[in-house]
Design a protein that fits this description.
115 residues, alpha+beta, Double Stranded RNA Binding Domain, 2 domains, 3-stranded antiparallel beta sheet, 3 strands
């Protein structure tokens, strides 16, 4: 990883919980893998957005001070490759569409999966 944005794009586990205590009703949010990275908000959405901002600052601080930033749980166990069996008709259709786009079937499948 090189910079904050690289880390922000990884699949970290966000936990957002409703809290009802002496302070009132609000949402508490944290990143499972980043100890101490947490935030709150009056709504789920606000807590989530505040958490992303806190996460950015948390990661920036760690990188600036030469500390390691933990990767998402299990992230290093993924190769980026998996096998999917599909009907011949779908295989044909995707192959034709990839050819029309001028890309490989793998590139076209990646595009379709990411949108």
């Amino acid at each position: 990883m090189k910079d904050v944005e690289d880390y922000m794009n990884l699949p970290y586990n966000y936990i957002v919980q409703p809290i009802n205590d002496e302070s009132g009703y609000y949402f508490y949010a944290r990143v499972l893998e980043l100890d101490g990275c947490q935030s709150t908000g009056e709504t789920f959405e606000e807590a989530y957005e505040n958490l992303k901002e806190a996460m950015k600052g948390w990661i920036e601080t760690k990188l600036e001070n030469g500390f390691e930033v933990p990767l998402p749980v299990g992230y290093e166990n993924f190769s980026g490759k998996f096998i999917v069996r599909i009907p011949k008709s779908l295989h044909y259709k995707l192959s034709v569409e990839a050819q029309q786009e001028g890309v490989s079937l793998n590139q076209y499948a990646l595009y379709k999966l990411s949108h």
